[in-house]
Write a sequence for this structure.
C-alpha cells in the first residue's frame, strides 16, 4: 500500500485550516504545493533522500497552523467586500444579458414586422453587444481560466461602453413612454442594470488591481 | 532574523525583490535569502499571505505561467507598486542614514 507523502498530508491539514472562499483556498494550496515540491526537489538534488527532503521543506515552510493563521490575519479584511461585489456584478450582468437577449429575439421576430428596419437593426446590434458583454463578464467573474486570459482591456472598454448604451436605453424609453403612455419599465430597469454593471465591472477590475 | 523584526519591512523587501523581473514564490524567497546573505530567515509559507495582500492592495500583480508542465504563480510589480517602492526606498535611506549618524557618533 502506498503511504501518503508528507507533503500530501500537510496539504490536507492546510486545506482544513484555511477559512476562505474556494477559489482563494485552491490558489493558496496550489502555490504551497508547488513551493514544497520545488523545495524538496532542490534538497533531493543536494543528496537528501526524498522523505528527508520533504520533511526539511515542510520545516522551512512553517506549520499549517502558522501559515493558515498568517493568511487569516493578512487577508481577513479583503474577503467580504469583493465577494459581495462579485455577486452584485453577477446579478446586474445576469439582468442585462437576459433582457438584451429578449430584446434581440423580440426585435428579430416581432418589431421587424412593424417597419423601421434601421431602428430594429440598431436594437439588435446593441442588444447582441450587451448580451455578449454580459455573458463574457459572467464567465470572467466565475472562471479562473477566463480571468487568466487577460480580458481586462476588453471588459474595461465594454464596461465604459455600457454607460452611453444604458443612458440611451433609459432616455429613449422615457421619451417613448411620454409620447405613447406605454411605459416599458423593464427597459428602464435594463438600462439601469447596464449602468450598474458598467460601474461594478470597473470597480471589480479596480479591486483586482491587475497591472 | 525571524518573526517580528521582519514584519515591518517585509512588504518593502518583497517589492524590492520583484522589481528587476517577475518571480514566482519559491524563486522570490530564494532571491530574498540570497540577497540578504541568509540573514532573512522567515518561515517560507508566511511569505505567501504577504504576497496575496500586496496583490490585493494593488502593489503586485500575478498570473499563472506554465513551464515544463508545472504551473507557477508569477508576481510582478504594478505601477502603484513601483511608486510605493520608490517612496519607501527614499524613506528608508533617510531613516538608515539618520540612525547610522546617531549610532556611529558614539564610537
Amino acid at each position: 500500500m502506498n503511504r501518503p507523502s508528507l507533503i500530501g498530508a500537510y496539504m490536507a491539514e492546510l486545506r482544513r485550516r484555511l477559512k476562505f472562499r474556494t477559489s482563494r483556498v485552491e490558489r493558496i494550496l496550489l502555490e504551497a504545493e508547488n513551493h514544497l515540491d520545488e523545495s524538496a526537489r532542490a534538497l533531493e538534488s543536494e543528496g537528501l533522500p526524498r522523505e528527508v527532503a520533504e520533511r526539511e521543506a515542510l520545516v522551512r515552510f512553517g506549520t499549517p497552523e502558522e501559515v493558515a493563521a498568517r493568511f487569516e490575519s493578512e487577508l481577513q479584511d479583503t474577503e467580504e467586500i469583493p465577494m459581495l461585489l462579485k455577486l452584485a456584478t453577477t446579478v446586474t450582468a445576469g439582468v442585462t444579458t437576459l433582457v438584451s437577449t429578449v430584446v434581440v429575439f423580440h426585435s428579430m421576430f416581432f418589431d421587424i414586422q412593424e417597419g423601421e428596419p434601421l431602428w430594429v437593426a440598431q436594437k439588435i446590434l446593441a442588444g447582441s453587444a450587451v448580451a455578449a458583454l454580459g455573458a463574457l463578464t459572467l464567465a470572467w467573474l466565475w472562471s479562473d481560466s477566463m480571468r487568466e486570459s487577460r480580458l481586462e482591456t476588453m471588459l474595461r472598454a465594454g464596461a465604459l461602453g455600457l454607460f452611453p448604451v444604458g443612458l440611451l436605453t433609459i432616455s429613449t424609453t422615457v421619451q417613448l413612454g411620454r409620447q405613447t403612455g406605454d411605459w416599458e419599465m423593464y427597459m428602464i430597469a435594463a438600462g439601469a442594470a447596464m449602468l450598474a454593471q458598467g460601474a461594478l465591472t470597473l470597480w471589480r477590475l479596480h479591486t483586482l488591481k491587475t497591472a | 532574523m525571524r518573526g517580528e523584526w521582519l514584519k515591518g519591512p517585509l512588504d518593502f523587501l518583497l517589492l524590492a525583490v520583484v522589481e528587476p523581473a517577475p518571480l514566482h514564490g519559491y524563486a522570490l524567497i530564494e532571491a530574498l535569502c540570497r540577497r540578504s546573505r541568509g540573514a532573512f530567515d522567515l518561515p517560507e509559507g508566511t511569505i505567501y499571505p504577504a504576497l496575496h495582500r500586496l496583490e490585493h492592495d494593488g502593489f503586485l500583480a500575478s498570473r499563472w505561467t506554465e513551464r515544463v508542465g508545472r504551473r507557477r504563480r508569477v508576481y510582478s510589480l504594478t505601477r502603484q507598486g513601483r511608486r510605493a517602492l520608490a517612496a519607501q526606498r527614499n524613506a528608508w535611506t533617510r531613516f538608515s542614514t539618520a540612525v547610522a549618524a546617531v549610532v556611529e557618533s558614539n564610537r
